[in-house]
Predict the 3D structure of the following.
Amino acid sequence: MPENSTPLTEYGWNATLSNTFTTLAPPDSAPGRVLRVDRGRCDVAVAEGTVRALSGSDPRGASQLCTGDWVTVAEVLNSREPEMHTVTSILPRSSSIVRSSASGKSEGQILAANVDTVVIATASDGDVDLGRIERLLALAWESGATPVVALTKSDAAQYISDTLAEVSAIAPGATVLAVSAETNEGMDVLDAVLDGTVAILGPSGAGKSTLANALLADTTGADRLETGRVRTGDGKGRHTTVTRELIPFSGARTLIDTPGLRGVGMWNAAEGIDKTFPEIEELIAECRFSDCAHNSEPGCAVLTALGRGDLDERRLASYRKLQRENAWNAARSNARLQAERTREIKVISRHLKSHYRGRDR
């Protein structure tokens, strides 16, 4: 088994994964970790190094295979391409970061799998979007990973202390740091709180790739990821990262740099939203009625706190928006699943009818 094989252990292989592989792996397959996925194929780290593999036909669907997955791979015999492999199954995930599909379909899109720490990168040299940070926090908490908010470009920020305090107030339970990859300010502290597999999320122009290069510097000795300047017109960044890639770095850790996120829709993130707004959840528990809508009901602890100034109106509006969005996407998903079950029942019914008609002949 590959526990002592450096090419795989540097990506996080351990005894627990070895036991899972032994229990669930198909015959004639080997363990591996997906480094990147593109156009139905993927790069997979295995005990001998890195192989190119077809995404395969896992029961969960090839489209759901993503960077960070632990998989089983097998060599394709009689392939036109030498040493071609295929993914035969996806091992159970310890965590997954999921948002609603950017295409608008009633299904979730997995951004990264088996992540331990999520770094939410936000540029601090301009207007800081608190609502976006709350969205990303909800995704991170829901995934099961530990969120860290990195206020990047702190060397160019005018009021970084105020921004740090403002963001810390809306991120209870998460570490919030002001960092600069240019001056190295706060980078040692950031490096110290990162553990296991680290995914960096944020919009284009937030400095994700620059931050990643700074973290990878001790390992690669040079910039591993392409970076670009933000547009002068609107301050938005260009998409220099176009795919998710898993890269090993110091301390037996791995890092996933992700493309800039234009949209961050909620997907089955009820628990993540609750953890992002714990003070509102505490107030809800104190309402007189268990089905309180927090609009005009008597004995509503949320409205009382809002009236006293103990609860920020923007914060409540953000909470309500994420809850509505999450409920809407959940309803769409349930409708899709019900339609799929109905189609399956019809197919089985037609098959049975055909079988019995043939038996009577």
